[in-house]
């Protein structure tokens, strides 16, 4: 059997134009694993409450971070693909696809099939399990592969939130920032509605049912986003020699009126500054490629929030992108799977 690799990231609009952002948001938000409401309710929310105004707001944000080569998420993911392909050699084709928009999953599967790949390893570029990222990417590839290449064996890499290579790359990427004078390290993970955690809990009685649920053994931990985020922070702290009192966890990018995980990054940063914290470093471990949420939301808007509230130094730690240690980790995961 000939092995191939498919890297899958979330997606990006084709340009910072409102029309392209509207097209992207429509596909993204109409996914039932993202906006998990009944279809009729989801359509009303998306078409009546979001699409009339959000594309204009998002366009301004995308314009702030757009590069001459295109969307930072796609550009950085392409660099990962190129670097991993060089490591694995031509005998193991490596393709990149986005769950939403381009480059698309169908075309990537067609290219892999044309190269004779019949043993496909899918690597969702999301360290932690979530319905709206890892799960939707994996199920979409399975669905399309069954139609496009039914003879192809498709395997999906499990979440790598505590993979030693991933943790090693993360800690190395933060070494410079941690060596500088700072009061606190903030782990800013992407946020999720709390009901998503309950929906992925196979026991139906563990996640968010007690204050220490993420610390107690349970089958739910296999798909528990919050427990996996905390495991990443602990593994990072242990590897980097960061004490528990020297870091904090927050969750960014909540959207809408649902109850999300707390504390929320922007609110927490303002609170910390008002309480006397003056120098912070922020890392975003749930993103392996810099994108709108890291470059505009954290590195720009959250910086402004912290400094306006009284902070004096804000250090943003970039994502792993095509860092050689991260490519080492990807290569190791690909070879042993």
Question: Secondary structure elements and their pairing?
Answer:
Blueprint: E1 3-11, H1 18-29, H2 39-50, H3 54-65, H4 72-88, E2 94-100, H5 105-114, E3 119-124, H6 131-148, E4 153-156, H7 164-179, E5 184-190, H8 194-199, H9 225-240, E6 247-252, H10 265-274, E7 279-283, H11 292-308, E8 313-317, H12 324-336
Parallel strand pairs: 1-2, 1-3, 3-4, 5-6, 5-7, 7-8
Your description of this structure?
The structure is a single chain. The chain has about 325 residues and is of the alpha/beta class. The protein has two domains: about 5-160, Rossmann fold (3-Layer(aba) Sandwich), CATH 3.40.50.1400; about 165-315, Rossmann fold, CATH 3.40.50.1400. Helices cover about 45% and strands about 15% of the residues. It contains twelve helices and eight strands. The strands form two sheets. The protein has a four-stranded parallel beta sheet, sandwiched between helices. The mean pLDDT is about 95.
């Amino acid at each position: 059997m000939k092995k191939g690799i498919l890297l899958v990231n979330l997606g990006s609009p084709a340009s910072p134009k409102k029309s392209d952002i509207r097209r992207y948001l429509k596909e993204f938000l109409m996914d039932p694993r993202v906006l998990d409401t009944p279809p009729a309710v989801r359509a009303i929310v998306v078409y009546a409450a979001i699409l009339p105004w959000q594309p204009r707001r998002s366009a301004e944000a995308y314009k702030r971070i757009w590069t001459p080569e295109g969307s930072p998420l796609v550009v950085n993911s392409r660099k990962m693909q190129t670097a991993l392909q060089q490591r694995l050699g031509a005998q193991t084709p490596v393709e990149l696809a986005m769950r939403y928009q381009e480059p698309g999953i169908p075309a990537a599967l067609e290219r892999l099939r044309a190269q004779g790949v019949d043993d496909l390893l899918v690597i969702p570029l999301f360290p932690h399990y979530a319905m709206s990222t890892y799960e939707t990417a994996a199920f979409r590839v399975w669905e399309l592969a069954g139609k496009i290449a039914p003879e192809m064996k498709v395997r999906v890499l499990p979440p790598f939130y505590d993979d030693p290579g991933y943790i090693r790359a993360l800690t190395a990427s933060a070494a410079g920032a941690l060596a500088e004078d700072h009061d606190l390290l903030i782990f800013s993970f992407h946020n999720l509605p709390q009901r998503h955690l309950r929906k992925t809990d196979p026991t139906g009685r563990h996640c968010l049912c007690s204050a220490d649920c993420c610390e107690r053994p349970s089958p739910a931990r296999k798909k528990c986003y919050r427990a996996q985020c905390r495991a990443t922070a602990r593994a990072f702290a242990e590897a980097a020699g960061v004490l528990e009192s020297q870091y904090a966890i927050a969750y960014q990018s909540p959207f809408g009126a649902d109850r999300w995980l707390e504390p929320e990054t922007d609110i927490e940063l303002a609170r910390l500054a008002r309480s006397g914290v003056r120098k912070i470093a922020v890392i975003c471990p749930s993103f392996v490629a810099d994108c709108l949420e890291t470059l505009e939301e954290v590195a720009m808007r959250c910086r402004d929030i912290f400094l306006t509230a009284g902070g004096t130094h804000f250090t943003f730690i970039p994502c792993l992108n095509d860092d050689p240690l991260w490519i080492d980790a990807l290569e190791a995961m690909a070879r042993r799977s």
